[in-house]
Every structure is written in structure tokens, then in C-alpha cells.
Specification:
The protein has about 250 residues and is mainly beta. Helices cover about 0% and strands about 50% of the residues. It has a six-stranded antiparallel β-sheet with strand order 1-15-16-13-18-11, with no helix packed on it.
Length: about 250
């Protein structure tokens, strides 16, 4: 919730190195592939994640893929921002891919009605990637941010989004899934460095509990692909007294 470049904030920073707990996708470390579901559908092949303080842009660790089948690459970005003024993400770039979802605050993949921001973007890769680095740029620099990049197999070339923002409630949003869809969400909590308590049947992909600035950034997913078409509630049950932004990402089966 606080700028590391001297911008005003309601909370004073401590001049200590960032203390952050990151689950599954550690900064600079490629996570092992997540368990493949018994339900046929979209699968997660690879995840990388990192977080930094006081940045204007943030680059994910390099990622590489193999195989000849098209793969969907999704970038999840969450960031701190100034109090009472909307933070933004000016899209992502990298890997020679055409990233979809850029369009600013009016689109469903960019949530910033509360302080901070959560956003997601995707691209389709038709060939193996080597040393692929994805970079996101913030609208207002000098703040903490995180970026997580996931490579998906078995996904169609169309990804859908929804978003929600709130204060004094647990972060939750409604996504619409098909049978075999895998649903993700990326969120920011501007009010506290607190691990998420997820809804049943959901798992953390990456989580940064940043005690330097008092924020939490996270990506979560349905543990298993959806078994039937219809609405899916993605989110957590606690904390339920902070302000937050949340974007859902539904990867539909090919």
C-alpha cells in the first residue's frame, strides 16, 4: 500500500528488505508442473513467478516450453499503488507473442476500483519458447508488484475474463466455465500482508505476502477442471475486512 519512491501513503514503510512468502512459484524459480487432473481438460504445464518492491515494470523469470501443439500463455499481474488513486497496468510484452487483453480500465481483465490493481493477459504460442521473458509495466511507478506466468496445454485459443473489486468482504468473483475449463484468479489486497484462506476445491498458484508494504498479491485456481458448464465462484473466505481487486481467467478446453 505504500510507494517505495517517497510517494505519500497512510502507512510508513520500514527500511528493511522485503519479507515475502511465496507459495509454489518462488521468485526466480520455475515451479514443477502441477498435478494433472483425472478430469479431461486444460492442464498447467509450467509456472514462474516473482515479486519486487519499488518498480515501474516487472519481468517474470525466463520460461521455456517444448512440443509442437499450440499452448496458451497467461500472465497474471498484481500491484500496489497510491492511496485513493487508481493504479493501472499498461499491458505486458515479451516472447515475440501477440498479447491479448490490453485495453485499459474498461475491460474485464483489469480490476482497480479499489487501491492497487490486478490484471491478466494471454497469448497463444504456436512453437516452443526459449528463454521467454514476460514484462509488465505499471501506470504509476515506484510500487511493489508481482507477476506470474503460466503455460497451459489442452486449452482453446480463446480465454475469458471477469472481474470484481470490494472492501470489507472476502475477495470473490463469478466466472463462467465449460466442462473441462480451468479457472484462475489474480488478486491484490492493499490492506494487509495476510495469506489467503481459499474456497473449497481451490489452490494457490503463487502468493506474495509482502510485509514491507502491507500488501498481498496472489494467483489461485480451481484444483481440478470444471466438470460441468456454468458459473463458478472463485476466491477466498478470509480475510474478509480488507479492500481488494480480483480478475478471473477461464481457459476453455480445446
Amino acid at each position: 500500500m505504500a510507494s517505495l519512491s517517497g510517494m505519500s501513503s497512510s502507512r510508513r514503510l520500514r527500511p528493511t528488505p522485503m519479507v515475502a512468502a511465496t507459495v509454489l512459484a518462488l521468485a526466480g524459480v520455475v515451479a514443477a508442473p502441477m498435478p494433472v487432473s483425472a478430469v479431461s481438460g486444460v492442464a498447467v504445464d509450467r509456472v514462474v513467478s516473482t515479486s519486487e518492491n519499488g518498480v515501474s515494470s516487472i519481468a517474470a523469470p525466463a520460461i521455456a516450453t517444448s512440443g509442437t501443439a499450440p499452448q496458451v500463455v497467461v500472465a497474471y499481474v498484481a500491484a500496489d499503488g497510491p492511496a485513493g488513486s487508481r493504479q493501472t497496468v499498461f499491458g505486458v510484452n515479451g516472447c515475440g507473442l501477440s498479447w491479448l487483453g490490453s485495453g485499459g480500465e474498461r475491460v474485464d481483465n483489469h480490476a482497480n476500483d479499489q487501491d492497487g490493481v490486478a490484471a491478466a493477459y494471454y497469448a497463444v504460442s504456436y512453437k516452443p519458447l526459449t528463454e521467454c521473458v514476460v514484462t509488465a509495466r505499471l501506470g504509476t511507478g515506484g510500487y511493489a508488484a508481482s507477476i506470474t506466468v503460466a503455460v497451459l496445454s489442452g486449452a482453446s485459443r480463446s480465454v475469458t475474463f471477469s472481474k470484481a473489486s470490494g472492501s470489507g468482504t472476502a475477495p470473490q468473483a463469478v466466472a463462467r466455465a465449460d466442462a473441462g475449463s480451468l479457472v484462475f484468479a489474480v488478486g491484490n489486497d492493499w490492506d494487509g500482508a495476510v495469506p489467503r484462506t481459499l474456497l473449497p476445491g481451490q489452490s494457490i498458484v503463487s502468493e506474495t505476502v509482502n510485509t514491507d508494504v502491507g500488501d498481498t498479491f496472489w494467483v489461485q485456481r480451481l484444483t481440478e477442471p470444471a466438470t460441468a458448464p456454468g458459473p463458478v465462484i472463485v476466491g477466498s473466505s478470509a480475510p474478509d475486512d480488507h479492500q481488494w481487486n480480483l480478475v478471473t481467467v477461464t481457459a476453455h478446453p480445446a
